[in-house]
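Problem 12. The chain below contains 352 residues. Write out its predicted structure in token notation.
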Amino acid sequence: MAKRRKKQPTIRRTHIIAIGAIFALAMMFVFIMWGWKGREIDEIASDPIFTEEAPLRYRHPVTGVWMDTQKSILPQLFGVMVDEHEDAHPLSGIEQAFLVIEAPTEAGIPRLLAFFTNEQEVEKIGPVRSARPYFVEMVQAWDAVYAHVGGSLEALASIEDEPVKDLNQYWNGSFFWRSWDRFAPHNVYTSSEFLRLFAGEEDDPIYETWTFKDSAKEVPPEASSIFLDFSFYSWGNTTWKFDSKRHQYQRFLGEHFYPLENGAEIFADNVVILFTDIEIVDDMGRRRIRTTGEGEGYVLQDGQIISIIWKRPENKNIPRFYAEGGEEIALNAGTTWIEVMPDSSSVLFSDL
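Solution.
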């Protein structure tokens, strides 16, 4: 009898279908997990917790220096009338002023209107001298307390007629003192503490502010020296030299360091030169200087010389500076000096 061959097992069609389904499900699971992982990575990358946002910063309203907190009110300002006669040297505290306006008085001898804020600590400011009407007009723009020792009749009349926060040493001597190591009238001083005490609880000041920018240190400088011919007295003239390392202008008296107490030095981030009408009005050589309207001038910043038109409609307005194209010039954050001159013949630039 023939022997039967054993039948070999066969894979059924149903088994093949089942295996294919399992494989498809497995692949689908892999793709789903891959997609989920990618979406998770994207979500983590976009999560704000993992991004570093730059902290908010604000510019100080009168210096333009960056601050971490915004001021809710403008700081009270003080404008101090400072003597610049040879017998007044060395001066005190001027290097700490955030703004100084310099203009000629009798014999072309310049005088300074130095501005400080109620946030500053300045132990000694001066010598303090008498008021002139054009400085009275300028101090109004910043709604500042005006500290001075008397003044010309025109200046005192202007103070009485206009809304000026007047601090006259003649009537408020307790906020000043006299130094006995020099002769009057070049020996009167005040301080930030006395200025704050006088101001007390003044109403919140109201004044305009400039637009500020950061110094453009990558710009090659154009001029290294600016000479201002205020007076036929050599000690009444000023030179500003651009310091390329500090990227600021340093003030000199001729070729010598400017005479300040304790060997301090004056640096400015902006030097503004304003040309305006200046005329002698009496036998004493007193000046009348136009401070409103408009005129030509220069803004010196970053070693650059920018020709400008300055405009100041009224005494309540601060002067503003416009380039030839009409756009307003933004000042460098920091310290600004404004030099009031009769015309361009009194200014000499020296190239690098």
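Discussion. Helices lie at 13-46, 133-141, 153-161, 192-199. Students who got a different answer should revisit the alignment rule from Section 12.3.
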